[in-house]
Give the backbone structure.
Amino acid sequence: MKNLFVAFGTISKIPVPTVKKINIKRSTIFFPVVGYVASLINFGIYYLLKDYIPTNILISLIMIVYFYLFQYFHFDGFVDLIDGFGAQIKTKEERLKILKDSRVGAFALLGGVLYILFLFNLMENTPEGFLLAPVFSRYTMNLLLTISKPARKDGLGKMYFPYPKFYFLLSLIFILPIGYFNIKIFLIGITSSIISAIIMNTISNKKIEGVTGDVIGASAIISEIVYLFILNLYL
């Protein structure tokens, strides 16, 4: 239970009891559980209000609640990544410095706005499909940790390494029930997680020779876009 609380405390704003002795690596096993809670809240908002307000307003409301409770840290990592990886510089050290800088640059602003617009359109096309996106996107972080290495010798990202390789299998246990109820959604979700983790690891290795906390968080953002894009193509 302590590891579950740590997972919520790390990647959400849901209030949980304070845990004194934490195992941040083991807490990652429960990342998909955090995704289920996000999905449950999104589900509740959607089905309670879908018959009363227009879809575009409903999607906007879901996004506001979702971003505030669950997506803020990931979005922050995403815009930092856009700034650091999009900058016209060549050295790893300079990119890492930009990633650590809390100021929002032009690349970050543009990338953030485009992401929100793209996400809104994808959600509007498949509003019900978005309900499980948080589960698969959180699992993407497990996969990325499994195949990556730290870019820094310090920082939040370094705390997850060395990452036990079998943790991604333990985390997968929480996702398997989706396959029982809807194998197509399960396969699309797992595929999007694998694709996103590989893409993020490849790009990050090329840019900064590893991953940081920002990159790990941003992988959830990328994964949701990939998942919804594939969902729009095949459903």
Notes: Residues 179 and 186 are 5 Å apart (CA to CA). The mean pLDDT is 90.
